[in-house]
Structures are given as structure tokens and as C-alpha cells.
From TrEMBL:
Organism: Hylia prasina (green hylia)
Keyword 4Fe-4S (UniProt): no
Name of the protein: Exosome complex component RRP43
Gene name in the database record: Exosc8
GO biological process: exonucleolytic trimming to generate mature 3'-end of 5.8S rRNA from tricistronic rRNA transcript (SSU-rRNA, 5.8S rRNA, LSU-rRNA); nuclear mRNA surveillance; nuclear polyadenylation-dependent rRNA catabolic process; rRNA catabolic process; TRAMP-dependent tRNA surveillance pathway; U1 snRNA 3'-end processing; U4 snRNA 3'-end processing; U5 snRNA 3'-end processing
Family listed: Belongs to the RNase PH family.
């Protein structure tokens, strides 16, 4: 495994399994904790912790008030940021965000935009005067591959946990008044779920790759779908090309994975909702 890691892997792949005992199409154990019970970020307006095998990601959403942009007076903002601190894996260094963290942040921003999971108009409080800004900080605590799937899952779970207080503008003073006793959940219009694949030797597809599998792969691809089976995003940063048939196979598997993840989120939310 140390001297010839690729040959070591190929021996397993020929038998349609992987060194960790999984089949090629099998995901690692997935768990999600939502809200304060997740020992997450207690100061956040919504939070979630997702584990995908050993990969552990936490997402905290902080809501702040701001003036909307001049060219989109009726819209709020969603600002995602992915952090890969040096404590999550040896490959990452402390300091400003590296290339991988920046690419992940951009991917999350694209998913939010393409899936229309939240309509930015829903974040507007008073046209041209006041809107919500949602700062979505996604921090990797333990990195073992497939960061994107875990990040999208944690983001969705955290947003579903957000409760925004009622805000009105006092007509006499022109100042905003926040009613912390009356809170409403965010309107989540779509539920995007990411499913990632590693491509081995240009032809073989395996789902939910570990860090070691990503390093040995000849390419990766991430498919994002919503609950209607709609394709929200295909993220393929170079590497081996995919045939149309292979890509269709990935999309079909991503739709199945979406149902599993949605079921898991719904189950957790139901368990923490006061009876």
C-alpha cells in the first residue's frame, strides 16, 4: 500500500470492492446533528455538523442586517465561506485560504445560485432600505476526502435550522426594530444535495471517495440535484473525460442519493422539533 498504492487499489477494484470494505457504489456512514444539540456554534442563528465517514464538517449561519445593493434593492445576500484549517489535515497550512478552500467556497456559491435554494427576495425586509445577510461559514474539522458533499449537506441542514426574528422599520424614526420573541424559519425553496465520484484509470467510477482515493484518481466529478431530480450543477475540475453514458449513470445515482440525504435531514429535524 505504501510502495505501490495504485496497484494496491487496483487489486481491490478488480474484485468490485475497496480497501475499506465498501462496494464501489457505497457511501460511508453519514450522520448529521442540527442546531444547539450538535454542540455546534452556539452563537450562530443556525448550525449543523455532518460526518461522512471520517470527514467532519461544521456549518454556522449568522444573520445580520444591511442595506441592499442599489442594483438589487429587493434582495438580501448569502455569503458562503469554506475553511480548511491546518488542524483538519496535514496537507493544509494555516494562513489565508488556499486554492482548495477558495474553489470549495465558489462551488458552494454556485450551488446556492443555481439551485435557487433560497430566493434572495425572501431576505429583503424593506425595499431599498433593509435586508438580511446570511454569512454561512463552513469549517472542516477532519478531512478525509469528499469535502463538497459534506459541505453542501452541512449548509442545507444549518439553513433549515435558522430562525430569523421579525424586523420592522419604525415609520416615525426610520430605525429598524427587532422582535426577538417572534421568529420565523427561513423559506428553503429547494434542497440541493451533492454526490461526488472519483474516476479511476479513466473509466471506473467510485462514489464518496476518501482523501487517498481522490489522490490516486484520474479525475473527480460532483453532481448536484434537487428533490425534483433536477440537475443543479456539474462540477468537474479537469481530469479524465466522461462519456455521456457515464455522466448519465452519475446523475441517476445522485438522484437516489438525494432521497437518502433528504430522509436523514427530515428525520433529524423531526426529532428536535418540540412536540
Amino acid at each position: 500500500r505504501t510502495v505501490e498504492p495504485l496497484e494496491y487499489y487496483r487489486r481491490f477494484l478488480k474484485e468490485n470492492c475497496r480497501p475499506d470494505g465498501r462496494e464501489l457504489g457505497e457511501f460511508r456512514t453519514t450522520t448529521v446533528n442540527i442546531g444547539k444539540c450538535s454542540c455546534s456554534i452556539t452563537t450562530a442563528d443556525g448550525s449543523a455538523l455532518v460526518k461522512l465517514g471520517n470527514t467532519t464538517v461544521i456549518c454556522g449561519v449568522k444573520a445580520e442586517l444591511a442595506a441592499p445593493a442599489v442594483d438589487s434593492a429587493n434582495k438580501g445576500y448569502i455569503v458562503p465561506n469554506v475553511e480548511l484549517p491546518s488542524l483538519c489535515a496535514e496537507r493544509f497550512r494555516s494562513g489565508p485560504p488556499g486554492e482548495e478552500a477558495q474553489a470549495a467556497s465558489q462551488f458552494i456559491a454556485d450551488v446556492i445560485e443555481n439551485s435557487q435554494m433560497i430566493a434572495k427576495e425572501d431576505l429583503c425586509i424593506a425595499n431599498g432600505k433593509l435586508a438580511w445577510v446570511l454569512y454561512c461559514d463552513i469549517i472542516c474539522l477532519d478531512y478525509d476526502g469528499n469535502l463538497l458533499d459534506a459541505s453542501v449537506f452541512a449548509l442545507l441542514a444549518a439553513l433549515k435550522n435558522v430562525q430569523l426574528p421579525l424586523v420592522t422599520i419604525n415609520e416615525e424614526t426610520g430605525l429598524s426594530e427587532v422582535n426577538l420573541k417572534q421568529k420565523n424559519p427561513l423559506i428553503i425553496r429547494k434542497h440541493p444535495v451533492a454526490t461526488s465520484f472519483a474516476i479511476f484509470d479513466d473509466t471506473l467510477l467510485i462514489v464518496d471517495p476518501t482523501a487517498e482515493e481522490e489522490d490516486l484518481a484520474t479525475g473527480t466529478v460532483t453532481i448536484v440535484t434537487d428533490e425534483e431530480g433536477r440537475l443543479c450543477s456539474v462540477h468537474k475540475p479537469g481530469g479524465s473525460p466522461l462519456t455521456g453514458a457515464k455522466l448519465q449513470d452519475c446523475i441517476t445515482r445522485a438522484i437516489t442519493r438525494h432521497k437518502e440525504v433528504k430522509k436523514l435531514i427530515d428525520k433529524v429535524i423531526k426529532s428536535i422539533t418540540p412536540k
